[in-house]
Amino acid sequence: MSETAVPAGAPAPNSAPPRRRRRSRKKIGRRVLPWVVIAALFLLWQALVDALRIESFVLPSPSAIFTAGWHWRGPILQSAWQTFVETAIGFFFAIVFGLSAGIAIGSSSLIYDGFYPALVGFNTIPKVAVVPILIIWFGVGAIPAIITAFLLSFFPILVNVATGIATVEPELQDVLRALGASKWQMIRKIGLPRAMPYFFASLKVAITVAFVGSIIAETVGSNAGIGNFMLVASSRFEVPLAFAGLLVTGAMGIAMYAVAGAIERRMTGWALRGGMDIDTRS
Questions:
Q1: What is the pLDDT of residues 160-202, one digit of tens each?
Q2: Of 136, 180, 255, 267, which one is least surrounded by beta carbons within 10 A?
Q3: Is the separation of the CB atoms in 224 and 171 below 8 Å?
C-alpha cells in the first residue's frame, strides 16, 4: 500500500499540536519548579537537622517551625497583618515620590546635578540609626515603621526611573523636537515607556527592602508587628516560633514580588526578552 506523499517544504501533519503541548508542559513546569525547589530545601534542612542532631534552640527543624507556627497562628497572623499594612503604606508612598522624583531627575540635568549627590549621601546613612530618631519624633507605633519602609524602598525606585528616562536615545528626542513636541510630551511619549521596565524591576527590589525596613523599626521600638513578635519569641528562647515569623515574612515578600511581576508582564510584556520562550530542540 502506498503512502500519501507530503509536498516538499510543507509542515508535517499534526506537528502544531505536539509543539503546543510541549510549550504547555514547559509553562506548567516553570510554574511548579519554584515550589519543587522550596520543598527540596525544606527536606534538606530537615534531613541535616535530624542527621546532625542539632538542638532546636540553635537551629530548629522545619517540622518544629511549622508546628510552632500552627500553634501560634492567631498571634502570628495578627502581627503579620500589622507588618503588611505598615509595609504597604510605606511602599505606596515610595512609589509615588520615587516615580515623581525619578521623572524630575531623569529629565533635567540641572536637577540631577543639584539633588542626586545629596540623595546618594542620604541613602548611605544606615536606617537602623534613623529609627531611634523617628521614635523620638513620632513615638512607638506604626509611623516609624512606615517611614523606615518608605526610606529603604524610595531610592531604588528613584534611581531606576531616572536611569530609564535619562538614557532615552537622543535621536528619538530630536525627532519629536523636530515635530514640535514639548518637554512633557517627550517624557510622556518616549521617556515613561522607556522607564517602565526599569520601574518594575525596581519594584521587585524595593518591596523586599520595604519589609526589611518595617521589621527593623518594629524590632527597635514597637509593641506590635512581626518584628516585635520575633523579638519577644527570641527573648523567651522560643527559636522555632521566631523562625515561624521569618517564614511568614518571607511568604509575604514572595506574594508581593509575584504581584509586581504579574503587573509587569501585563504592562511591559513588549519589553520582556523573547528568548525566554524559544523552543530549543536539538
A1: 888 888 777 677 766 767 777 666 777 777 777 778 888 888 8
A2: 180
A3: no
